[in-house]
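INFO batch 0412 | record 1 of 1 | parsing
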Amino acid sequence: MGALGIRPGAPIVSEDCGAVEGAMQTILWKCEQYLAGQLKDRNIFESEEQAKEFAKKLQNVAPDLMTRIEPMPIQNVWN
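INFO prediction complete | emitting tokens
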């Protein structure tokens, strides 16, 4: 487990893929972490709020990492 209580590299997506009112959510949020301009890790979240909360906690643990949060279609994750 990492400092945040999360297994390093583990995606943070529930089994239902963020189902909302019986319909599948079509947008996920990715949070990428960069160190010295190089991609170090990428995590997937169901909501923008979850991604921002993760980035905020990560900033307290590893202030030298840059984070980028952006939406991505679920089709980019699963075919």
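INFO post-check: The radius of gyration is 13 Å.
INFO record closed
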